[in-house]
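Page 37, top half.
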Amino acid sequence: MTTYKNITVYCGSHFGNDGAFASLAARLGEALGKGGFHMIYGGGTVGLMGLAADAAMAAGGRVTGTTAVAGSLADAIREAYRLASGVQFENAYRRSDIGQRALQA
């Protein structure tokens, strides 16, 4: 049986119109951290993304954020292996691609 420890989380950089979203994001992050999961997410420090990541780290979890900036996919892959924590990408498509590659490694 395969055991997965990497979880990719995509959520908003805003809190939304319902406080339940913020509560759920924080509870999800805490559960991932306590469960020993590696949370891979969009890299934001605000809104639901920030809440989930902060809660995961506070609960002892490992968190990797991905953000879009200029550069090539090859450069991003090299940087991912060099840093192994936070990686910047040219656009959202490339960010998703490297996230998939990270899970396959």
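Page 37, bottom half:
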Amino acid sequence: MKQLKKIHKIHRHIANQRLDHLHKKSTEIANQYDVVCVESLNLRAMSNKGFGNGKATLDNGYGMFLCESRQMVSKFPNLPLLWISKSTVKRLENSRMGLSKL
């Protein structure tokens, strides 16, 4: 029983570290930029394709980061969160404007 409590404590600590890091990064992005653009990714399809990552694609915390970003954007009413598709990203990369000036 003691070992289980120690393991649970360690897992809780790691989970809190991840949440803290996501909170800090989303706050940094919200403070630094006027617009936040997020590409709509199908992570499940990416994990099933032959990228070699498999389940690691699902475990990377991208979904948690999006949730944290949504919460952070709600605290900054003048900061829009734009969902863009892959074709829009490619079009912006090919244009003169580029993603950095969006």
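Margin note: The mean pLDDT is 76.
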